[in-house]
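Sequence in, structure out.
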Amino acid sequence: MQGLRGRNSWAFRACQNRRAFLTFRPMDQLSQYVPVLILAVVAVGFAFGTLILSVLLGKAGRRSRAKDMAYECGMTPQGEGNTRLSVKFYLVAMLFILFDIEVVFLYPWAVVYRDMLKESPDLIFGSMLSFLGILFVGYIYAVKKRAFDWTS
């Protein structure tokens, strides 16, 4: 029993090591971030260095109209490079995103369907029917407004 209480016992040394470990030393903790800071400085320096070097060594003065022209598989491009798209394209894209996100809400329902079917079958089935009903009304509205018609 006496051996556990002495200064040379393993319990005393473990307690001392724990106290030393728990002691807050802010400079020791901040010094651990020095390699990360050096890496960040090197990364930013490399990025800006390569940009500056490319401007200094590049042949920016030797540009011509043919070199600045868009490449169209070896053919001379006809018309403007940036064509304007119809608003209907964006409308269809937004409707796709809307209905795609709505379908994502079906997954949690499918996961808990079997468990909820045992507890309250009318609630889970009714909630999904109302959800799909609202989704269907939105789809009918989009069809009536001719949102999916690309001809015009």
